[in-house]
Amino acid sequence: MEISSSALRLPFLFLLVPLLLFFLLSPWNPLHNLSGGGDSAGRRAQFPPKSLTSISPPPAEPRSPPRNPLDPLTVGEIHRVRSILSSYQPFLRHFPSIQSMSLDEPDKSRVLGWKSGDPIPSRKAFVIALLDNQSHLLTIDLDSGRVETHEISSGSGYPMLTMEDVVAAVQTAVSYPELEASAAARGLSVANLSCISPSPGWFGPDEEGKRILKVLCFSKQGTPNFYMRPLEGLVMTVDVDRREVLQFSDTGKGIPIPGRANTDYRFRPGNKPPEMERINPISMEQPRGPSFTVTDGHLVKWANWEFHLKPDQRAGLVVSRVVVRDSETGAARSVMYKGFPSELFVPYMDADEGWYFKSYMDAGEFGLGATAMPLVPLNDCPRNAYYMDGIFVSADGQPFVQSNMICLFERYAGDAAWRHSELTVSSGGQELREARAKVTLVARMAASVGNYDYTFDWEFQTDGLIKITVSLSGMLMVKGTVHDNMNQVQNQDEMGPLVSENAIGVVHDHFITFHLDMDVDGPNNTFVKVNLVKEENVEGKTPRKSYLKPKRHVAKTEDDARIKLSLYDPSEFHVVNPSRMSRLGNPSGYKVVPGGNAASLLDHSDPPQLRSAFTNNQVIWVTPYNRSELWAGGLLVYQSHGDDTLDVWSQRNREIEDRDVVLWYTLGFHHVPCQEDFPVMPTVAASFQLKPVNFFERNPILTARPVFEEDLPVCRPSESASII
Amino acid sequence: MEISSSALRLPFLFLLVPLLLFFLLSPWNPLHNLSGGGDSAGRRAQFPPKSLTSISPPPAEPRSPPRNPLDPLTVGEIHRVRSILSSYQPFLRHFPSIQSMSLDEPDKSRVLGWKSGDPIPSRKAFVIALLDNQSHLLTIDLDSGRVETHEISSGSGYPMLTMEDVVAAVQTAVSYPELEASAAARGLSVANLSCISPSPGWFGPDEEGKRILKVLCFSKQGTPNFYMRPLEGLVMTVDVDRREVLQFSDTGKGIPIPGRANTDYRFRPGNKPPEMERINPISMEQPRGPSFTVTDGHLVKWANWEFHLKPDQRAGLVVSRVVVRDSETGAARSVMYKGFPSELFVPYMDADEGWYFKSYMDAGEFGLGATAMPLVPLNDCPRNAYYMDGIFVSADGQPFVQSNMICLFERYAGDAAWRHSELTVSSGGQELREARAKVTLVARMAASVGNYDYTFDWEFQTDGLIKITVSLSGMLMVKGTVHDNMNQVQNQDEMGPLVSENAIGVVHDHFITFHLDMDVDGPNNTFVKVNLVKEENVEGKTPRKSYLKPKRHVAKTEDDARIKLSLYDPSEFHVVNPSRMSRLGNPSGYKVVPGGNAASLLDHSDPPQLRSAFTNNQVIWVTPYNRSELWAGGLLVYQSHGDDTLDVWSQRNREIEDRDVVLWYTLGFHHVPCQEDFPVMPTVAASFQLKPVNFFERNPILTARPVFEEDLPVCRPSESASII
């Protein structure tokens, strides 16, 4: 019943994608059960030196029991599930690979009926295990110690990869004899390579019936940023379970490996800083500490908000039971039952042999939580941040700690929550200058899915608005080329611009589809499209010829709620509770407010788009609540054929009026790289909002207090303060 | 040569739209040359108590001479222009009304050739004066003391209103005998009214040949927020110059005035706060002070940026000569010659008599700077902000100070400028966790154009990105109605929802068109649309069926650069310097990155849309630089017929390739009101970005230093800190 010790835990962290060949050739390889890295804590503590004090050490004892029906599995519970499965008859001969293990949440009605202090409903785990090339779906009752349901998937996909799968694939590939020749042809040995294992997508019958991974290699000579140094044209297709190279292709021996110059992004005290003036230290300061509380590990309360926040190995960060207090009555009112990124689709735009398959579905293939490394204090999150660990499960069914994977902080960015300035007479000529500083609460995590870093923010405002932001940084996936200047490129032949000598930044998209189980003042909601329609005036009635009129369209079925955004046919998108009217007779609602966005334009019959058909509507789908419809690309996404997507479920065109509905929103990015993205990209962000619309009777922060000078902290510079 | 004293200056501030009837009936009325308000400074100092120390008092002496060719007219220069005009022969009999007076900027080539230390080019003023219903356009040479050019406009529009125009119109209207009966029919006297003077738009021949204003009245009984209490159906059309009511219409005597309950938005220490937990004090702290400098009043230098920042009575805030330092060579490189909001178009969506004309063009009709009140320290801008005054001109040609109208501050909002997290082997198993805190510089002003508050932010990032944000707050323009519940409204008849009893929030749009004179590495630039085109693959070449390919289209003429945004035909929009190639052969460029946006859908022949035809393209136009093409709606916008808009200029379809070009971007909002917008709206923001694209050879902040704990300030709570 003990969690892996720090020394044992480390290898799990080390095994994350991209897996580095080093481990396979070194005593660090956890498959050889060697230990190491005992100095890791010391290393992390070097940078930044004092900021890690808030990091909790991995618990030596099992955590306290769950306090909330939605709390993730504890260390003790994970051990118990493993123990139950170990003595489960079908697994006696061979213990399966545990591809995922997580809380099987109680029925929504049970959760909604539960109150703090009640005994929590019986705890269950949902396990996806792989045995003999079959995906086993099991629910295990922790109280009875029994496997309650056990089903073998008949669908097309495989479960999320484990780190062991990745290790196996890379190990298989790097042991393949022909690789040495490919390395040698480029003046390298296999020991100079870092190899990664992108998922293969799915492209027809040849790729069915077995789990495959593509393995690509890079030179790690002289740089930690091997992504910038591809061995272009080299692709190995590996059967993960049989540990066999199915196909070895190297068409790029004539393509130079891009150089290592300027690829290292690590801070070194001696680095030449950018040519700019010093920036004096600046910090968000809260000397009285944060205003939020986190009780029982997961229940966050702040200002007028309350929600359950938990790490998830697949979704990364899940918010549940999001409740806002009514500004006047103080009553707790439901906004959302559950919200999380359901899938992340990243198609690259290159048809070449080494590129066509790159159409990642990162949440379902690798896991956003599984790839969320510890956040860097003071740089990923501000000084006033609080950190939360994830307790996840490895392929052998053992728990491990993903430390500091979520941060939670209050933000003041210098903006006003509302303002009005005027001169008025009602008080005898007094100047009216009213403004209220905006303070928000941010819950953040950052997934490093190989080269790319995705930061997910849930930001809560006191006016009832929730802003969801995805920020992209990290490394481009670059393509080797013989060219070192665009003047050698004919007729826009390349799939993107040169971002460095011999390195093309290949165009690609990112689509993040969020599952938003809205429960506005209760589960039963209605989706209303408020369309702004141009009306032409009756001649002579007024001098105006046209105006826009809001027309409300209630979506009766799923088809009515498939929304494609258009600047020229604008609408607002409301989720309302038809049973809860404001005093003025407006239904209580929240609206989805899109921001900058992008749509997937791939052919609907193109395999990547088939599998990610949940991006066919840009931006919204609405489905009736269905316990099993959580993952927009399907429960088993890996090599899936697209037979279990949101698009498929929604073709039933179910009724959605005055029902418990789930809204799905897709945030998209087109990315045409440029030189500034080399060797690491400045952050690009996009967001959307969930905004109250006639939910409150009036501006809920009308009576908020302004900030006065005497409220603010008294600060002095640190003795040793330097430049940023 | 003295500026108006505080007592004289105050009336100008007090005269801003909306003008309140109080002044017309009280000794404060500046038209009666009464003085008052000597205690104003004391009043302002009451709130917040200690925060106004940075406010500069109005200068008793003329300011120091201008130091930069772009510096706005000084107090002394304004006096000198007035003196020159006073003795100018055509104005000897009658001194005209000075509708606007501003620096006539030297030719761009002169400015570009000027270096710090050089004598500044001869100073000239551009004056628009009104005399006998004619608009006189004059340039005055301050050195020679002569009127250099003098032209009488033959176009359709009138100049920007002065506060005296507004006073005259309101005074004329409230003196109109029938108003007493309209007030009495609603149980009020004229003394209970606040009247405002919206511009009339232009709707045909009846409205030509004279300057008119519409006057609307509200009850100010029991509230400073009279906007929420319209006398619906009452409209007075006033001839401003003849001081005559042309039309008096009152069709709303049966419509109740919405009540005053909950309309007051002022802070009172005894106010019941919203139902939420206390938020501990939070502040952006910079104990070593800001890192930027402002030299000679207007030249801002920060990190790698340098720009000229000045207040403008019409545009509000103008940034000029925006230069960024190359991250590697340190060389100063031009990005933009000039950027400012050129026009703000706000059409309301109601055809009724009292509403159809509401189609404001706030910059050209009222002035964004003229309506920019002092920012509220600690609430409009953070504690570390620096404030800048505007020196503007009143109708009599005298200068006045618009104090604290711009703030400038460094922002740290807790985000990362870039990040990557990984485990790597190149340093022997060291964990790689790199992130860099993002610090930016914000220049802000807020125009309170009557009911609405528009905050304009120019935010500069060290990675070369400029983010331009417009935030909306303030009051809705509400419409009185007999209804107090939506269940009384038939068939979606209303032009918006009830936001309070008897008050409809009328649907409306906001469009802010920015003038962006891009000079990327020099004046001559080319606009390139990088279109992402779906390519279908040749059967059998690869398993993929489709991908997106970037196709570059160089805009040869203006027609090629008229951009309507579409999610389904995506492009990037680059302004590149075809003569400056990166080492890789990519042209140096900046791209315009749209965010959330809205398009005007009014009929192109509808008068408001004719006049604001610059919003026909959503989002971009590109024009060749033309000194006279600054104002998208025309130089003289008031009652214009749309004969001098960006759309008209651009119909010439001029050549724009490798020329000095100006890019115009429109940021739009559709606003369907809701109860949360009552009685003052939570801030709504939208933005767009100017982002380097192959401008730098690589990520310009790659070598930036992370934040370390020892850099940060040491803070303690203030003794008296309270809730926010």
Provide a descriptive summary of the structure in words:
The first copy, chain A, has 724 residues and is mainly beta. Helices cover 10% and strands 37% of the residues of chain A. Chain A is built from 10 helices and 33 strands. The first copy, chain A, has a 20-stranded antiparallel sheet that branches. A 4-stranded antiparallel sheet of chain A has the order 1-2-3-4, covered by helices on one side. The interface between A and B is large, with 235 and 235 residues. Strand 9 (283-285) of chain A pairs antiparallel with strand 9 of chain B, so a sheet runs across the interface.
List keywords for this structure.
3 domains; 20-stranded antiparallel β-sheet; homodimer; 4-stranded antiparallel β-sheet; Nuclear Transport Factor 2, Chain: A; 724 residues; 37% strand; Beta-galactosidase, Chain A, domain 5; mainly beta; 10 helices
Briefly characterize the structure.
The structure is a homodimer of 724-residue chains. Chain A is mainly beta and 724 residues long. Chain A folds into three domains: 48-152, Roll (Nuclear Transport Factor 2, Chain: A); 163-250, Nuclear Transport Factor 2, Chain: A; 298-423 and 436-707, Copper amine oxidase, catalytic domain (Beta-galactosidase, Chain A, domain 5).
The end-to-end span of chain A amounts to: 45 Å
CATH homologous superfamily heading of the largest domain in chain A: Copper amine oxidase, catalytic domain
Radius of gyration of chain A: 27 Å
Helix content of chain A: 10-25%
Strand content of chain A: 35-45%
- Counted up, domains of chain A total 3
Please name the CATH architecture of the largest domain in chain A. Answer: Distorted Sandwich
Rounded mean pLDDT of chain A is: 89
Q: Mind telling me the CATH class of the largest domain in chain A? A: Mainly Beta
* Largest interface, counted by CB within 8 Å of the partner chain's CB: A-B, 235 and 235 residues
- State the total count of DSSP E strands of chain A: 33
Oligomer: homodimer
Cofactor (chains A, B): Cu cation
Protein name (chains A, B): Amine oxidase
GO biological process, one term (chains A, B): amine metabolic process
Domain Copper amine oxidase N2-terminal (chains A, B): 69-149
